[in-house]
Write a structure and sequence with these properties.
Specifically methylates the guanine in position 1835 (m2G1835) of 23S rRNA. It is found in: Cytoplasm. Its main location: cytoplasm. The chain is an alpha/beta fold. The strands form 5 sheets. A 7-stranded mixed sheet has the order 5-4-3-6-7-9-8, with helices on both faces. A 7-stranded mixed sheet has the order 14-13-12-15-18-20-19, sandwiched between helices. A two-stranded antiparallel ribbon has the order 1-2. Strand 19 and strand 20 form a beta hairpin. The structure holds S-adenosylmethionine (SAM). The site of S-adenosylmethionine (SAM) has 21 residues, from helix 7 and strand 13. S-adenosylmethionine binds next to helix 7 and strand 13.
């Protein structure tokens, strides 16, 4: 647990899921810079936090927790960010409803008076979110963005310019920068270009030539990932009633492939990104059928699935968490998969060869077979015994 010190006091903050040995803090210099700006520290003019205050893209709820007294609306695409926010609010003596949590898929408030944007890793997500928020912004709305210098590019500023209004940046402080944007109500409103659809190549098994639907900000939203491509060519061939989980489903291409290959499969798509689960649902419905059996869950790994309730888990795990490389999520997913698999059930994983997932799988399952490999990727199978 780490403490964030602000002029308003000290806050105990943690990421979610919380790990006692988590090397990462739940905030960074970009969050601190924004908070200092709002409070009018270092010669800045303090910002009056009145009316509807909206915080977009708060990574782990640090901004929302410090600003909880202003009852902000938080908008995020991340279920984990929402869980972190709730835990951090309670940890710091607030009620869970001190912050109104909206996902990136929800309708934003009609009118926004203060808009604070933690610039996301994905430019596409920022573009989509600004398009959705622009109608609620008025000439008097205070709009401030924040991010680490390496996250803010000319293209980032151009998005604010094009969708909200004239934009400038602050000096960099501790490798963080602020973005000041003045809303221009006369700007022509254009619709978001998302979702984006692309056609799959002809050599990727059951989904060959099919169309994939991608909402903004999801993993590989504009082209098929090469690891996923390798996985699609080495998925298990199964028949009959099969309870399958596409764990970390992204646009749902893996689970959709399993459903097309085996009409007896009942696929559950899970992701911590609301945009991903919406994409998976759209991909599945477009390719398998409007009434075909499937479940679409936003959640943390397999946490919402029953023990022993699954025959097969398919997983292309993430190895990044907000710009930091980490294998903690993959490890959690493997443990979670084991818990929900029935005896004899299987976890199939694709990963970069150098990530060494086979060592973790052997430790967790007591076995691991390499099903396929090329110089870059491996597909691994672990059986619950
Ligand atoms: C490498 S991508 C794979 C996406 C898709 N299966 C594919 O192969 O194209 C990993 C996915 O895991 C999701 N993810 C990350 N952490 C998660 C968690 N704790 N629970 C569920 N999904 C998570 C990410 O949002 C991302 O969509």
């Amino acid at each position: 647990m780490n403490r964030l010190t602000t002029s308003k006091g000290e806050y105990e903050l943690a990421r979610y899921p919380e790990h006692p040995r988590d090397p990462f803090r739940a905030w960074d210099a970009a969050d601190e810079y924004l908070l200092r700006q709002l409070e009018g520290i270092d010669g800045a003019t303090p910002v009056e936090l009145t009316g509807t205050v909206v915080v977009v893209g708060d990574r782990w709820g640090a901004l929302s927790t410090v600003l909880a007294g202003h009852r902000p609306v938080q908008i995020t695409d991340s279920y984990l960010a929402q869980r972190a926010t709730l835990a951090n609010l309670v940890r710091n003596g607030h009620d869970e409803d001190a912050v109104r949590l909206l996902s990136a898929r929800d309708t934003p408030p009609d009118r926004i008076d203060v808009l604070l944007v933690r610039v996301p890793k994905s430019l596409a997500l920022l573009e989509d979110q600004l398009h959705r928020l622009a109608p609620a912004v008025h000439a008097g709305t205070v709009v401030i963005g924040t991010g680490m210098v390496k996250e803010i590019h000319t293209s980032t500023l151009k998005l604010f310019e094009r969708i909200i209004g004239p934009t400038r940046t602050s000096l960099a402080v501790k490798k963080a920068r602020l973005i000041f944007c003045t809303p221009d109500p006369a700007l022509a409103r254009t619709p978001s270009p998302w979702p984006y659809r692309y056609e799959l190549p002809g050599d990727v098994g059951a989904v060959s030539g099919r169309t994939v639907v991608n909402h903004a900000g999801i993993f590989c939203a504009e082209r098929l990932d090469i690891g996923t491509r390798f996985f699609l060519n080495h998925l298990p061939e199964r028949t009959g009633r099969d309870r399958v989980v596409d764990l970390g489903c992204g646009n749902g291409v893996v689970g959709t492939s399993a459903a097309l290959a085996n009409p007896g499969a009942a696929v559950t798509f899970v992701d911590e990104s609301y945009q991903a689960v919406a994409s998976a649902e759209a991909t599945f419905r477009a390719n398998v059928g409007a009434d075909a059996e499937a479940r679409f869950l936003v959640g943390d790994g397999t946490a919402d699935l029953g023990p022993g309730s699954v025959d097969l888990v398919l997983n292309n795990p993430p190895f990044h968490s907000h710009l930091a490389t980490t294998d903690a999520t993959a490890r959690n997913m493997f443990h979670g998969a084991r818990a929900v698999l029935r005896q004899g059930g299987e976890l199939w994983v694709v990963g970069n060869r150098h990530l060494g997932y086979h060592t973790q799988l052997r430790r967790i399952f007591g076995n691991c077979t390499t099903v396929a490999g090329d110089p870059k990727f491996v597909v691994l199978r672990a059986v619950k015994r």
